[in-house]
Amino acid sequence: MVGGRALLSRYYPEKIVLEFQEIISFFPEKPRLAIVAGSGWDEVVEGELIDEFSYPSLGIPFLPEVEGHAGKLQLLKKNNFIFLLFSGRLHLYQGYSFFEVTLPVLFSYLAGVEAIILTNAAGSLSFSLPPGSVVLISDQVDLTFYPDPILLSPPFFDKKVQEIFKKAGKKEGVFLHQGVYTGVLGPCFETPAEVRFLSRFGDMVGMSTVKESKLASLLGLRVGGISLITNWGAGITGSFLRHQEVLQVASSLQDPLQRLFSSFLEEWSKNANCS
Predict the structure, then answer these.
(1) Residue 15 and residue 31: Cα distance in Å, rounded?
(2) What span, in angstroms and rounded, lies between the C-alpha atoms of 115 and 108?
């Protein structure tokens, strides 16, 4: 993005930008892709570990409040392809600011990646998406009611990323739905009335992703989004919702999701220079 660095220096502290750039300067090779692992996704993406950093060591404030969010950045290599894996994310409901929540996007942009994949666990708003469904995000609705401090352009979920995921899913026998993600502030699960309201706007609901995708799109990165449906929205089945249920569903699908991402990374490495 033309003028992207000037924009970032206006909104993000110079110290954090310089710290990120210094760490990136020691990378043996420029990463071409970044993946943000949400709840239940941190064990899915595999590769040869080149280096690892805790979020605090990078200058990213992080409190291990949410189970399933490790709070670390790994520089990984697979099929001679270097990529970033952010295990865990910061959430607005934890009290972090927009700028803190989007620091992984900032780091990825400064590292020179071409694309960023945002993963999350989500609740279903539709009977057509039972728990265990894997959904490519085709669009999003930001219902966090948290103001964007930067004039952001609408997020675009990249068609090329979606095509490669579909190809990987077909190869591995993992069916990929497509749907609209509604982002809310949280931190609690929605009430049955809220689920009925949200179902008018989207297919699934979660507490992340919408701000990250906006900034990534503004900075010119290809954006991919993928949700794992881990529970029904409240009131759809009458079951009681717990975060542990989210992690259990993710754990039960670890093998097919690993195969999906392995094939995606293999295919993306062949298309890394696509326009």
Answers:
(1) 22
(2) 9
What distance in Å separates the CA atoms of residue 63 and residue 215, rounded to the nearest whole number? 23
Mention every residue, 6+ apart, whose C-beta is less than 8 A from residue 84.
Answer: 31, 33, 34, 35, 73, 74, 75, 76, 107, 108, 111, 113
How far apart (Å, rounded) are the C-alpha atoms in residues 92 and 94?
A: 5
Burial class of residue 143 (count of CB atoms within 10 Å of its CB; 0-12, 13-18, 19+): middle
- CA-to-CA separations, 14 to 20, 102, 220, 241, in angstroms, rounded: 10, 15, 21, 42
Which domains occur in the chain, in start order? 4-270 (3.40.50.1580)
Measured in degrees and rounded to the nearest 5, phi and psi for residue 50 equal -95, -45
DSSP summary character for residue 92 = G
What's the confidence (pLDDT) of residue 8? 80
Predicted confidence at residue 275, as pLDDT, reads: 45
Coil vs helix vs strand at 216: helix
pLDDT reported for residue 130:
93
Q: Are 35 and 83 in contact (CB under 8 A)?
A: yes
Per-10-residue mean pLDDT of the chain, 275 residues long, equals: 68 91 94 93 91 92 68 92 93 93 96 97 93 96 94 88 97 97 90 92 96 94 96 69 69 92 94 57
Strand partners of residue 86 = 36, 73
Residues 244 and 219: beta-carbon distance below 8 Å:
no
Which pLDDT value is given to residue 40? Answer: 81
- Which H or E run includes 115? strand 115-124
Measured CA to CA, the distance from residue 83 to residue 30 in angstroms comes to 8
Give me Rg for the CA atoms of the chain.
18
